[in-house]
Amino acid sequence: xxxxxxxxxxxxxxxxxxxxxxxxxxxxxxxxxxxxxxxxxxxxxxxxxxxxxxxxxxxxxxxxxxxxxxxxxxxxxxxxxxxxxxxxxxxxxxxxxxxxxxxxxxxxxxxxxxxxxxxxxxxxxxxxxxxxxxxxxxxxxxxxxxxxxxxxxxxxxxxxxxxxxxxxxxxxxxxxxxxxxxxxxxxxxxxxxxxxxxxxxxxxxxxxxxxxxxxxxxxxxxxxxxxxxxxxxxxxxxxxxxxxxxxx
Length: 248
Prior knowledge:
Elements: H1 5-20, E1 27-34, E2 46-48, E3 53-55, E4 60-65, E5 68-73, E6 76-78, E7 88-89, H2 91-97, E8 124-126, E9 131-135, E10 141-144, E11 152-158, E12 166-170, E13 176-179, E14 190-195, E15 202-208, H3 216-225, H4 229-242, E16 244-247
Parallel strand pairs: 5-16, 8-10, 9-15
Antiparallel strand pairs: 1-2, 1-4, 3-6, 4-5, 5-7, 10-13, 11-12, 11-14, 14-15
Helix pairs in contact: 2-4
């Protein structure tokens, strides 16, 4: 075989692989996986409606599929399209990912805060949770706290630049405060957030999402690709809370 034929064969093989890959518009997204097959169905894996999902004893995977949530438990073999009635529209997940302003901050299922309260929206920045946070709107950054007792003053500064800190004030009884300051947010930059002067500050790295997907699967993929595990954990908790489990 001539050397010139190899690139052509590689191109054909690549094209065939793409043809066999699940179409993102027709695929569910794995948002949580545990058990012996977790490596096969790792977080972020896309599964087409007709793909056979073979799970072993102890396997549990959570899939966002067409706006519905599916929790599959092994052992058994599953096909997403075969049980369209098993998944349910998840209102908790819809509320968690909504970008519409909420007039009242209430508790909902998510990642528990220090006082048992949970962050009701993935776009609210939990002042007590470190990690990478994706922002849908850099002009409307809301900070959230679990303990609403008393007025609280939080300091925010670029990591390593405490002199550039600004303050955000939570009123007594409020769980939400708007971050409005001259501090310029930058994509990929790390900031420290802490309650002055007593609490130890946490470090938060912000990533910007210029185009926020409307459907849950694409949003989960965006969070995964940007390393926003805190928000993905919130989505997983809400998804599992509102899903019906499926067993073979």
